[in-house]
Amino acid sequence: MSDKSQRIGEIIAAHAHQEGPLLPILHDIQHEFGCVDAETEVLLAKGLNLTRADIHGVVSFYHDYTPEADPRPVVQICRAEACKANGVERLMGAAEAAAGKRVKISTVYCLGLCSSGPAARTGDDLHIRLDEKAITKLIENA
Amino acid sequence: MTLVKISDDALALAGGADKLAKAFEAKGCEVHRTSSWGMQWLEPMVEIDGKGFGPATLDDVDAILDGSSDKGIGVIAEHPFIARQQRLTFARAGKTRPTSIDDYEDTGGWQAWKRVRTMEPAAVIEEVLASGLRGRGGAGFPTGIKWKTVAEAKSDRKYIVVNADEGDSGTFADRMLMEGDPYQLIEGMAIAAYAVGAQTAYIYTRSEYPHAIAKMEEAIRRAEPIISPLHMEVRMGAGAYVCGEETSLLNSLEGKRGEVRAKPPLPALEGFMGKPTVVNNVLTIAAIPHILAEGGAEEYARLGVDRSKGTMPIQLAGNIKHGGLFEVAFGLPLGELVNEIGGGTFTGKPVKAVQVGGPLGAYIHPDQFDLVFGYEEFAAADALIGHAGITVFDESVDMGEMARFAMEFCAAESCGKCTPCRIGAVRGVEVIDRIRTGGRQRDVLELRPQMHNTTKDKGREAAEEVGLLTDLCETMKFGSLCALGGFTPYPVMSALKHWPQDFFGESEVPAEMAE
After folding, report:
1. Chain B, 362-421: which have a CB under 8 Å from a chain A CB?
2. Domains contained in chain B, CATH given
3. What ipTM is given for this predicted complex?
4. Where is A57: in which H helix or E strand?
5. What is the pLDDT along chain A (142 residues), one digit of tens a residue?
6. How far apart are CA B305 and CA A8, in angstroms?
7. pTM listed for this prediction
8. How far is A34 from B375, CA to CA, in rounded Å?
9. Which of residues 45-74 of A touch B (CB under 8 A)?
């Protein structure tokens, strides 16, 4: 048994007492391995007595699970209505230029900081009232 | 020692509240990390002896302490933004430390829970009915009736599910409540479980709210002896907006794709794992402890207008000068909320549009600012209050672009189960693009003589595309399974109706659409 399959077995066991445990299990896997890949789907299907199609259907439905790990740092930028009202679209050019190929910019729809946008998130750190200078700095330090 | 209060709400943290708190500690102050008052333009705000200073930076620390700071706003509780509110659900905002169970108890916490347990469950439901409380998630269904249905259902297991999947842009009241007053939500859930006979209560919230999740989990651990034997658990979503829809949320909670279920059966009868389930919004459940306190239901029913009873935590967002949380009884005109309380736009330019109720809410023109804040009043104007988020836009916004974004958002977030939403949203983006670029010419292939079945006319004018868009919106409105596809037409059609020049260009608005 490989390390990975053993670890996934442990994660499944840790959630065995929960009702409908698939999402909490997938969160743990995504957090630990940075992705939920095809190999993991097979292991999960076996461990939870579901078909691989069931697992893949769930994994591919949600934005938070990715099929491949991405080593780049991620900056999530909110581009929903309230942040658009505060001009986030005018910052995107500078943001993408600052990110280049080194940083991954991902769009998120709402961080709940809607009175003080444009807002962004890096890990568990939140950022508000961003302007071109602030967002560039934020991405360069990501 | 000087007692300094600084919020640990996510928005204050984003503004640098942690560093600020450390700086005050380094100066020998005692720092309490409290919930946020909801005056978000002042965050991070520093409170000393009831007086506020904000937005504070590290450079302000010395001046605040020696009394020479020019960022003072005076006594917070007397500030017009706070003094004009009627805070019931957010009564503790700014005053208590969120996860301190002592602070909660000292401010009237658990009173309702103690009282409820001396009552018959049916009597509890009667009081909820009498209060006139309606679901705060958007649909406005009477909470008492939902509870009664679950209470009367026969089943070995029943569930309470709190919908904290607050994905609407322009809303943050659920987040503020979970981060600022988690015990109130826990008390409300315990009362709901007692009233309907549920053994388990889930809070389903978003992965975008890590601070709220941490606070809720800590509060649940500490409150366990009080609410036992009720089992309570926080579940984290995975970035799907549609999971804010109750049946989709239930599927997600069960570990499935977050696809919408057809109703009936109602979740009240066949909900989580097919068992009777109360699905209520955070703000609905958080209003419960107040309602179930002695005389609370009558007080609640006295507030508000018509069939919209009680108070609503309104969220002022977007391009607004004084953004934040404003809890008030239903019945204020929209214009007063935006211009007087919110102070107009942050940029100082005229307000062009406001969107009420998140991405699925209609865009409202300043001409309609006398609209009174209430469920029926908004419905009559082809708008909705939703989760009571108000997003303000100044004149720089392109409403054609916003209408396109509404369709684009629906396409990105559609669960894919029903056709009007899944395909309609994609077609919606295309049609809006064609309106904005002057219609559709027949392409080279279509015009080839070999293509016998294609029409060889000059294509469609922009005005004709509007007919298509209207038709598509009708189909989505009446043919979609849930509010995502069903309400996306509201922002689209309202933008087209009030700001046609943003779609066609100033000179080319068709005569029948010009106002």
Report:
1. 389, 391-394, 396-397, 402, 405, 409, 413, 415
2. 3-83 (3.40.30.10), 101-302 (3.40.50.11540), 304-397 (3.10.20.600), 400-513 (1.20.1440.230)
3. 0.95
4. helix A52-61
5. 578 999 999 999 999 999 999 999 999 999 999 999 999 999 999 999 999 999 999 999 999 999 999 999 999 999 999 999 999 999 999 999 999 999 999 999 999 999 998 999 998 899 999 999 999 999 999 8
6. 55
7. 0.95
8. 44
9. 57-58, 61-65
